[in-house]
Amino acid sequence: MWKLAGIAIGTLLIAVAFASSLSGGVDISYLTRVQGSKTVLHIVSGVVFFVVANYLLNLLVVGLPASRLGPTALPSVAIGLVWLTILGQVFDRISAVLAGFGAAPLARAVGASGDGAWWLSLLALNWVLSGLGVVALAFLFLRRRWGVTKRASWVLALTAGVFTNPAWAFALWFT
Fold first, then answer.
1. Contact residues for 93 (Cβ-Cβ < 8 A; gap 6+)
2. What is the pLDDT of residue 105?
3. pTM of the predicted model, to two decimals?
4. Does the pLDDT of residue 175 top 60, yes or no?
5. Which of 57, 106, 131, 137 has an alpha carbon 20 to 30 Å from 85's alpha carbon atom?
């Protein structure tokens, strides 16, 4: 099964690289263009690329330490990380919507004005809300599913909230 998954991911990454080279180079903003010649393959492969990258980052920041600090073996942790990554993406989308509602009031509260202030408020608020969701999810998985100690769970969850936060991709897309 792992061999098949590796082949599928490798094939998809090659397709992304080839499709992106046809579009004029590797360009993250290519996925966000309204006009242009983008295909479903470009969009899906771009989203899959970000989710796989997020999964691998979760594996490095949360999974490997969890398998060393807790009683759960790495294969079991790796499977649980699939769910953690998917739920983290869901929390990120929810936080992006909530940040959209809170960006203007936040900009006014700090005395900033203009479109730039709204965008910075949106990015900051999305990062904070998404980070809180990631911290909560990571802590829940670390403590309940993988049996990591409370202190180590907090350290790893806070680290995950900063470094594996999907809002980083959102910020890169719109800056």
1. none
2. 85
3. 0.71
4. no
5. 106
Token pair in block for residue 58: 């979760």
Residue-wise pLDDT tens digits, 152-163:
999 999 999 988
What stretches of 23-149 show up as alpha helix (H) in DSSP? 40-58, 64-69, 74-109, 115-140
Please give the distance of CA 11 from its chain centroid, rounded to a whole number: 22
* 4's tokens: 């098949």
Residue partners of 117: CB distance under 8 A and separation at least 6: 107, 110
Half-sphere exposure of 90 (CA within 13 A, CB side): 7
Where exactly are the structural domains of the chain?
47-174
Report the pLDDT value the prediction gives residue 21, as an integer from 0 to 100.
40
Query: Looking at the predicted structure, is the pLDDT value of residue 3 above 80?
Result: no
3 state DSSP class of 172: helix
- The candidate with the shortest Cα–Cα distance to 85, out of 57, 66, 120, is 57
Q: In Å, how far from its chain's centre is CA 131?
A: 10
For CA atoms 88, 55, 5, 67, give the dihedral sign: negative
Please write down the long-range contacts of 149-153, taking CB distance under 8 Å and 24 or more positions apart: 149/69, 149/70, 152/65, 152/69, 152/70
CA 173 to chain centre: 12
Which single residue is written with the structure tokens 């993406």? 89
d(CA 6, CA 52): 11
